[in-house]
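To assess whether ligand presence alters the predicted conformation, the chain was also submitted together with coenzyme A. Input:
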Amino acid sequence: MAYVLEIERDSFSHPWNESSFREELRRGEISRCVVIEEGSEEPGLIAGFILAWMVADELHITNLAVTPEMRRKGIAVFLLTHLLDMAAEEAATWCTLEVRVSNAAARSLYKRFGFREVGVREGYYIDGEDAVVLGLAL
Ligand SMILES: CC(C)(COP(=O)(O)OP(=O)(O)OC[C@H]1O[C@@H](n2cnc3c(N)ncnc32)[C@H](O)[C@@H]1OP(=O)(O)O)[C@@H](O)C(=O)NCCC(=O)NCCS
């Protein structure tokens, strides 16, 4: 958990705290996550993670982050590919998520996977920034 929180703090202006993660993962019937280890000798050291909810046939991505030192090495592509494959195996037909309008890196990543803009949530984030809602048919 310590490494997850560290990556989260390094990645977001308004990071989730430990209880947010625990609450997210407690809902075992709907929560899904993929974590990638760093491959070093240090046990539990991770390079990134992705979290989602699976509700009926919809996968909703709630969090994705890669440690800053390991970015642009394909880790987010790996995490997202793995999660989408898992969801497709569970018969999910649709994937959605929200992303900050200003988050060019993440928007470019999702575009690569074929996500399309399906709406805008005005003032969605705590600081008032809008969210773009993206969708992908699986
Ligand atoms: C967005 C994020 C998860 C990408 O992780 P990553 O492991 O560096 O991404 P990848 O190496 O798999 O990159 C895949 C593609 O995403 C896009 N991308 C990633 N970082 C980018 C950047 N800084 N600028 C522009 N495009 C970027 C590119 O299309 C890239 O493909 P390319 O390297 O062949 O050009 C990472 O930058 C991050 O943790 N950011 C902070 C948290 C965040 O914004 N999470 C998403 C919330 S919706």
